[in-house]
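Page 37, continued from 36.
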């Protein structure tokens, strides 16, 4: 995105090739999100990116969470990122950079610690209950938007912004890496979530989300690890490698996405941190890996 501080469009416009709408200062959360709209060339019809463009154009972002609410997440997510970097270094020492998705899926699943015991889950639930008492209408609106777009749409739009400055072949390769990271993170996360079968906080305590009627007997909500944290962390790893100077912006948006899921009682903090570790590990693997003929998990 351009660093010029000009006025963002009042309404989202259909993106046009060669036209870039500037992003405004990061401190203005909603404007940063608006900077994602219309800052990229039109994606091919039917592509994941094209769908992301249309979704956000039809659902413009509200003001997001203030930075003060994200500080704890910034520290914790950085810690998970460093832990994942150390784990990936061990994988790379033994396997190199050739993609071997079946082996990596098995290995990565073993690196994610199991959910905390009952006492830890109870402490996490108490934290969510405390946060629920501070909810505001603005916070609910921000959380709803981040929930709708935080797993894939936002990251695909960020990528399209980068692709404008790349040769076509390089841009297509970058898109393939992001898609691969999102797919692989989702695959491993789903396997672990199905194995652990931990319910979401709002299922354990329906008072946290009176708008929902799901009960613990209605099936597993499978909250551990948290998929939004896994996918957003994988995306941040890939995008930051492409544009290191924008890594802080991507991490800020990641903290927004993760905080939203705690805010809405969809996940406990431990769910989200486990997802962040997994996603960062997947992102390291994909951004460094050399393609191979067959890489299906």
């Amino acid at each position: 995105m351009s660093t010029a501080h000009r006025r963002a469009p009042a309404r989202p416009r259909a993106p046009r090739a060669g036209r870039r709408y500037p992003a405004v200062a990061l401190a203005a959360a909603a404007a940063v999100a608006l900077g994602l709209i219309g800052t990229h060339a039109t994606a091919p019809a039917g592509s994941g990116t094209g769908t992301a463009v249309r979704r956000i154009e039809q659902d413009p972002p509200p003001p997001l969470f203030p930075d003060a609410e994200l500080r704890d997440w910034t520290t914790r997510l950085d810690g998970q990122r460093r832990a994942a970097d150390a784990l990936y270094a061990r994988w790379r020492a033994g396997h190199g950079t050739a993609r071997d998705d079946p082996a990596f899926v098995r290995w990565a699943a073993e690196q994610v610690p199991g959910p905390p015991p009952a006492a830890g889950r109870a402490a996490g639930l108490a934290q969510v209950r405390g946060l629920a008492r501070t909810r505001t209408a603005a916070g609910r609106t921000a959380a709803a938007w981040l929930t709708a777009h935080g797993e894939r749409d936002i990251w695909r739009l960020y990528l399209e912004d980068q692709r404008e400055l790349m040769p076509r072949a390089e841009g297509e390769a970058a898109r393939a890496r992001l898609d691969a990271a999102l797919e692989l993170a989702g695959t491993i996360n789903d396997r672990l979530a199905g194995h652990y079968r931990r319910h979401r906080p709002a299922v354990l305590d329906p008072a946290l989300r009176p708008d929902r009627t799901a009960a613990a007997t209605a099936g597993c909500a499978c909250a551990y690890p948290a998929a939004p944290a896994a996918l957003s962390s994988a995306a941040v790893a890939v995008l930051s490698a492409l544009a290191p100077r924008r890594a802080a912006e991507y991490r800020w948006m990641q903290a927004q996405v993760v905080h939203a899921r705690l805010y809405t009682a969809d996940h406990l903090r431990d769910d989200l941190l486990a997802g962040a570790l997994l996603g960062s590990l997947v992102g390291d693997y994909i951004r460094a890996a050399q393609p191979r003929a067959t890489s299906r998990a």
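The first helix runs from residue 29 to 34. Flag for discussion at group meeting. The chain has twelve helices and no strands.
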